[in-house]
Amino acid sequence: MPVPISQMWTVSKYVLTQRWRGRKRYPLVLMLEPLFRCNLACAGCGKIQYPAHILKKQLTPEECFAAVEECGAPMVSIPGGEPLLHPQIKEIVEGLVARRKYIYLCTNALLLKEKIDLFTPSKYLTFSVHMDGQREHHDFAVCREGTYDRAIEGMREALSRGFRVTTNTTLFDGADPASVREFFDEMMKLGVEGMMLSPGYSYEKAPDQSHFLARDSTRSLFRRILSNRDRSWKFNQSPLFLEFLMGRQEYACTPWGMPTYNIFGWQKPCYLLQDGYADSFEGLMRETAWEKYGTESGNPKCANCMVHSGYEASAVNDTFGSLGGFLRTVRATLLGGTYRDDGARRELETTARSRPGGGQAVVPLTVTAAARQETERVA
Ligand code: SF4
Fold it and tell me: What is the set of domains in the chain, with CATH numbers?
């Protein structure tokens, strides 16, 4: 079971209560960005290109707690930037645990071993480690050698101390599905609780614009990766969202399911786009023209998007909104479906044969120097 029963129970009870109250739009996970500063400069990231004076800013613990209480979501994801660079991350985490929020602290784990003493193991706290594949692929994607090994070291330390540890993986065009499957085996062997996946979103500000996935490519890639899967693989996310990535489900975007709060306020409409900010969560829900977003809206910014922050809450809504969705979720969760697909197996073998030596790197190296210079400038 990739997620503790208590967390499943809390989330199920919360969603059913929202539906029972007839609430059409409700938050499931608060994306709390306490800072944008980072110790990496990944080519596919849209968060670290802010000017230095913005990168130096951060939310106070009190601002974080106020946002969490205002929003009311049972889960809080803390991305960034790199949250372990926040000087008060200990206070922020302790305050959220005291409020019984299930926290996913998203980190590249470069500082995890060094900072682990700040934290106490809890069912409410999970380190969600950014890992973009096997060593060669991960180091290339984050534009720095040695990051895979340091992250593994940090994860081992956290696991040995009894912390919950998961991985989060963003995949871009050119990802080698065979290598990704081997990466899953490696993570399961390491002992992580579960893995999370998402296709990369085409951030306008990202230095590398040439490797973002279109929707058809996303479905094809995830079908090859997730079909005929090993029963030992555990995913720490909705099984119906994974089916959506494989092209087995169709969902409309529900960006309010994972609202974003950061140093600018409540971001409209989602974690990825910045079409203005609201002063309060209530203002975000009231003022945002939600009908202008989602792939089905025709908004070109949303055309190729299939990311978890827009569609995972849709999948969870499906689980609790229809008997069919509920039964499919139960079957996938309890029986651990392998999604047998002979066509996908053949395509996987063909891909593997055409990529001797483990596949192509997914980000051009020319981006690395510029991106790294920017990080060093603001660090
Ligand atoms: S489809 Fe949804 S999550 Fe994706 S960019 Fe548009 S509003 Fe945001």
Answer: 26-270+278-378 (3.80.30.10)
Q: Among 28, 204, 293, 308, which residue has the most ligand 1 atoms within 8 Å of its CB, making it the best to mutate?
A: 293
**DSSP SS3 for 357:** coil
pTM, to two decimals:
0.89
Residue in 128, 123, 125, 151 with CA at minimum distance from that of residue 138: 151
Closest residue CA from atom 6 of ligand 1: 302
Residue 200 token pair: 């990369």
Whether ligand 1 lies within 6 angstroms of the CB of 269 is answered as: yes
SS3 content of the chain, % helix, strand, coil (to 5): 45, 10, 40
Full pLDDT tens readout for the chain, 379 residues: 568 889 999 999 999 999 999 999 999 999 999 999 988 877 777 676 788 899 999 999 999 999 999 999 999 999 978 999 999 999 999 999 999 999 999 999 999 999 999 999 999 999 999 999 999 999 988 888 999 999 999 999 999 999 999 999 999 878 899 999 999 999 999 999 999 999 987 655 555 555 566 788 899 999 999 999 998 999 999 999 999 999 999 999 999 999 999 999 999 999 999 999 999 999 999 999 999 999 989 999 998 899 999 999 999 999 988 888 888 888 877 666 788 899 999 998 887 655 534 444 443 333 334 344 444 443 3
